[in-house]
User: Which sequence fits this backbone?
């Protein structure tokens, strides 16, 4: 039995029927690399059985404390049934992107059963008309509750389920897993009572850190070293969300994004991606005559997981930054440079106050009070009344080498996050094997036209790439700079490579 941290408990207490809080990696496979070119559903179940011991996430379920007086516990589910969690479905013909994303949006809108281990895997066949992929592909859509994992541990779980070559490596290590009996209400209440005496000690340890952090924060604001990221304008994404979702996105070549980064100089790949998101949201809101004069603000999660705690045990070890997306700037190069400057100063702010401070504060609040506050916030819609940002953009890098499921090569690795009341648009960035996939999931009432939003992302990407190419061509060959610019070999007439429109309408 293992108790959830109060940070992990946030995702349990704040879940509603309209805001299910799971996150989902989505992979598409080419079965032609598998033995005989076939992958059977029973092969995938066997693979899960073989690898399931690599993460405790798969076989443990939640047990709540009576009256929510303390954070819930994880216990090993004695009634665990693997085949309940893995489902087999297929798209009807023609099996294209639009059908696929409609299905993903519908699956993602359904809450998980929190009386069982909170995850489900859907093996989806019939992907016969996916642009750039052979006919006969299949997908795995895996959704896991956010209380169990964050983006980093989610990636580790995916890598644990896969092989590095088509010849599957059979793991013969013994699996000594055993189920647990559910604890009695008396035991849970006794633990909650004893836990109350630990909270004052946690608070005492926190006071000094808070004082020092506040001092550094005030220095930064007084010296105008830190920017103010308070939301000045509410937009359509800052309302309560409905249970309905749309999903979409596009693929970009990693080398093209590096070309932008190297040409502009003094920026990161993450800055480039944030600039594309900012351009997309600007394009979309401008077309709706809803673009505010002030810059929109993005919430950007940051992993605080140490190398010593890099296993797939699960849980969340994240903090967050707020960054301006510079949607008030039309020029894509200027937008990118301003985003980089903001990111640099915001990282200095995070270092000054401590990126782990938020989770430390949350975990130091007495559990009964924390659970009550979380449930009140969820039930009263407080988060939608006082939104902290306009969208969330999460970026978890994946491996730059191919992976295989039962011999089938993973061609695409997408992701879907959890829209929230007050922040109904969620962007996910996944990088894998030379490609970067930028996807979005949103309340359907907020983006009723996801095809158009896809076009807005594509236009922002194309505009930034073309602007970087003009900048490169304008630099004299003998010019020197602080950072070497590496020109592309044989620039293509078509400057960007994307998938066909991915939408759910």
Assistant:
């Amino acid at each position: 039995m293992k108790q959830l941290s109060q940070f992990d408990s946030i995702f349990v207490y704040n879940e509603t029927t309209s805001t299910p809080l799971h996150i989902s990696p989505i992979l598409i496979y080419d079965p032609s690399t598998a033995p005989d070119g076939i992958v059977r559903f029973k092969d995938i179940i066997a693979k899960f059985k073989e690898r399931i011991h690599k993460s405790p996430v798969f076989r443990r379920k939640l047990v709540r404390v009576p009256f929510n007086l303390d954070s819930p516990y994880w216990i090993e589910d004695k009634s665990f049934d693997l085949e309940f969690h893995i489902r087999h479905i297929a798209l009807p013909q023609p099996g294209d992107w639009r059908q696929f994303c409609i299905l993903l949006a519908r699956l993602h809108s359904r809450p998980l059963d929190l009386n069982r281990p909170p995850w489900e895997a859907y093996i989806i066949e019939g992907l016969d008309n996916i642009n750039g992929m052979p006919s006969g592909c299949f997908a795995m859509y895996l959704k896991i509750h956010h209380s169990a994992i964050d983006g980093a541990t989610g990636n580790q779980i995916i890598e644990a389920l896969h092989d590095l070559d088509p010849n599957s490596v059979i793991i013969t290590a013994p699996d000594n897993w055993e189920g647990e009996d559910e604890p009695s209400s008396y035991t849970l209440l006794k633990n909650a009572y004893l836990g109350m005496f630990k909270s004052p000690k946690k608070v005492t340890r926190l006071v000094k850190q808070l004082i020092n952090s506040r001092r550094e924060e005030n220095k930064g604001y007084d010296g105008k070293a830190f920017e103010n990221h308070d939301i000045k304008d509410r937009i359509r994404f800052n309302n309560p969300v409905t249970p309905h979702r749309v999903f979409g996105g596009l693929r970009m070549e990693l080398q093209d994004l590096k070309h932008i980064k190297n040409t502009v100089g003094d920026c990161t790949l993450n800055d480039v991606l944030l600039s594309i998101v900012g351009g997309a949201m600007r394009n979309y809101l401008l077309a709706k005559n809803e673009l505010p004069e002030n810059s929109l603000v993005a919430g950007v999660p940051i992993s605080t997981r140490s190398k010593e705690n890099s296993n797939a045990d699960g849980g969340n070890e994240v903090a967050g930054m707020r960054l301006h997306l510079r949607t008030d700037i039309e020029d894509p190069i200027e937008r990118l440079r301003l985003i980089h400057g903001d990111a640099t100063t915001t990282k200095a702010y995070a270092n000054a106050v401590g990126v782990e401070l938020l989770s430390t504060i949350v975990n130091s609040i007495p559990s009964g009070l924390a659970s009550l506050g979380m449930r009140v916030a969820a039930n009263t819609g407080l988060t939608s009344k006082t939104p902290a940002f306009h969208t969330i953009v999460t970026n978890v890098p994946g491996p730059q080498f191919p992976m295989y499921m039962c011999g089938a090569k993973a061609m695409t690795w997408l992701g879907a996050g959890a829209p929230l009341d007050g922040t109904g648009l969620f962007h996910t960035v996944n990088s894998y094997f030379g490609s970067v996939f930028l996807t979005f999931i949103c309340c359907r009432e907020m983006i009723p036209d996801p095809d158009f939003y896809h076009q807005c992302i594509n236009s922002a990407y194309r505009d930034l790439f073309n602007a970087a190419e003009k900048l490169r061509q304008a630099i004299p060959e003998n010019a020197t700079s602080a950072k070497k610019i590496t020109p592309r070999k044989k620039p293509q007439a078509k400057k960007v490579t994307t998938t066909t429109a991915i939408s759910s309408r």
In short: Confidence is low (pLDDT under 50) at residues 203-211, 480-505. The first strand starts at residue 2 and ends at 3. The first helix runs from residue 6 to 13. DSSP finds 14 helices and 15 strands in the chain.
